[in-house]
Amino acid sequence: MNLLNISGSPHVHSDESTKKIMWRVNLALVPALLCAIAYFGLNALLVSLVSVASCVLFQWLIEKFILKQKSTISDGSAIVTGLLLAFNVPATAQMLWIVIIGALVAIGIGKMSFGGLGKNPFNPALVGRVFLLISFPVQMTTWPAVGGLFPMSLDVTTGATPLGILKEEGMAGMPQAWDLFLGHVGGSLGEVSAIAILIGAFYLLCRKVITWHIPVAFIGTAFIFSGILWLINPEQYLDPLSSILAGGIMLGACFMATDMVTSPMAKSGQLIFGFGCGLLTIVIRNWGAYPEGVSFAILIMNSVVPLLNRWCKPKRFAV
Amino acid sequence: MRTFRMGGVHPEENKISNDAAIEVMPVGKQMVVLMNQHLGAPATPVVQKGDKVKVGQLIGEAQTFMCANVHSPVSGTVLKVDTCKDAFGLSKPAVYITVEGDEWMETIDRTPDIKRECTLEPKEIVAKLKEMGIVGLGGATFPTHIKYSIPEGKKAEYLIVNAAECEPYLTSDYRVMMEHAEEVCIGVSILRKALGVPNAYIGIESNKPLAIAKMQEMAKGFEGIIIEPLKVKYPQGAEKQLINAVTGRKVPSGKLPIDVGCVVSNLGSCFAVYEAIQKNKPLIENILTVTGKELPSQHNYVVRIGTTYNEIISHSIGQLPETTGKVISGGTMMGKAVVNLDAPTVKGNSSVLVIGEKEARRAEETNCIRCGKCMHACPMGLEPYLFSALVKNNKVEEAKAHNILDCIECGCCFFSCPANKPLTDEIRLGKNKVRAMMAAKK
Fold this sequence. Notes:
The complex is a heterodimer of chains A (319) and B (442).
Chain A lengths: L17 H23 L1 H25 L10 H11 L7 H17 L12 H12 L1 H4 L2 E2 L13 E2 L2 H8 L7 H6 L11 H13 L6 H20 L7 H6 L3 H8 L10 H21 L6 H10 L1 H7 L8
Helix pairs in contact in A: 1-2, 1-3, 1-9, 2-3, 2-4, 3-4, 3-5, 4-5, 5-14, 9-12, 10-12, 10-13, 13-14, 13-15
Chain B lengths: L21 E3 L5 E5 L9 E2 L6 E2 L4 E4 L8 E2 L4 E10 L5 E9 L22 H10 L12 H4 L10 E6 L8 H8 L1 H15 L4 E6 L3 H11 L5 E6 L8 H9 L14 E5 H13 L5 E7 L7 E6 L4 H9 L6 E6 L6 E2 L13 E6 L16 H5 L6 H9 L3 H6 L10 H5 L6 H19 L1
Parallel strand pairs in B: 1-14, 9-10, 9-12, 10-11, 13-17
Antiparallel strand pairs in B: 2-8, 3-5, 4-7, 5-6, 7-8, 13-14, 15-16, 15-17
Helix pairs in contact in B: 1-4, 3-5, 4-7, 10-13
């Protein structure tokens, strides 16, 4: 007979794994990707493919030749980073090579330099995105005009994002909230359609990959704070519904602020984290140099996660 | 439906031996009876080589406070008083007995009649529990007479009987409820009398509807026995969680159930109490489950304590399947992997659980992704991921400050970790380090 195995209890496992979690996130990003393809055409698909492929490739190269460790690309986390990075850039043909640089920064600096998945303090996709925004300001803010369904032309026809319009021209040119909800507006590849993002987020909630705390706190704070500003001066400030639907709040709150690695663990910490993200987003949008503040807000809040983990302890059974 | 308030998981129940009626396991040729089958100091052997013993005769006496009597499970001649390796490979003092016939002590009532009346006073009940070597059969084997000797200044308000059987696979308590409901209720009444509390609550998880119905029906004929169906959630049967589920009270860190007016006994113990008080039968038998998905048949047995694991396996299923990976004493969540199949069973053993090769291996450990699942699964509200890091870096003080000693080792953290980190192992190591540090300071 074989020798018996000996180990400490428990002797069963829930069958949950990092790999399963990451693939669920990938699946949840599919509706937003399909929406982007529908609105921005082939470019959206190409930018996403290039971004994902380069993220996976860079992770594999770094693990094989620099860290000299077993490859972990099968866990699907590089694909999540690749998709999220693509979702945060304009769907234009010139992004095809720029996004490769973004992928190198996201994976190389944002993730692998800290030791890989789980060790990174900042959301890798946002690190890549912000690097690109600062290094390629023109290309990163040249938005494709929204075509109808499946515009197959590869020409860059510049459009503008709702928040860009607001910053430049004021309230007059703003699209309706309903268009914002469906995503029939200019903007980064994956952020335009609130409905597609919410479908994905709903799936993640059902599969218990994320909890409601961060998205609700994030979106809720942004809604209330922008609502207060709007009540003070509706001429100058955007109404709260458009505020949460325009720009990257939905994508950020549902998919990037909820990144397990870079968000607090306790529920109370998650609420504070979401609150901070929402508040900073509206502050940057209204008084900052950029029309959009979600990336910076999340990155700033990422940096206080260790503190939040220290302050916000789970409720103990009994003291 | 009631349950405990925080954390918990729901592992696959796998109660595949539910319908197997309790069978009697025959007695082997030789019996090895360990002297410490309970929490505390080992009992002192009171027999010598060559002595004749009967079934139920005292062979190990409790001479210190935290100790319990040990009785002979067989009749025969004492071969030697020596040591024996237990199921986990540790050497323990033991009495070896060569079995001759099956002659029981005359005092033991072996008739099948059920005796309801108990005329003993509370103090006499406790004294008799001590004499009969009764210990808690839920796993910790805490001597029952100590638990029911309420210290000065404390008052018991609740008697809670743990029939949650929240561990996967285990069905011995279920079978006892199905086959010995009346005896169990008498045992509960005796314990209720010993404590002087108005009501006893029997907590049963709702995945055992037949047992709940049976016990509810039986409890009608008894005063002060309340059946409390509980939501299925592990670790419902953990003492602090069960108290929380039934009464809503919380046992503070480092305190005992009696500090919140509760006494908890396992269902199997109540059956043993009935036999001890009403039938004069010491604790010489275990009811245990022989189960596993790989096994050709599933069983529940009444087994003389001291029967070896190999004897149980060969009688019930012939031999272990080729695909066996692990043999566990207890359930899959808190049971211990058996090292030595030639070891005798002891008081409190509840199962011989056979796990297949594939299930017996842990998946590869990967980086912590800080998902917090361990923390949310923890029924004590602790931070397992933090302990893991602190223990690895030998930050013992800090681990203690984060209440590592509150951990009940239920395994929910490791169970739910997507990175397969052996959190429960690391916490156990940490607890030992903390205890060593505290001992060194004294």
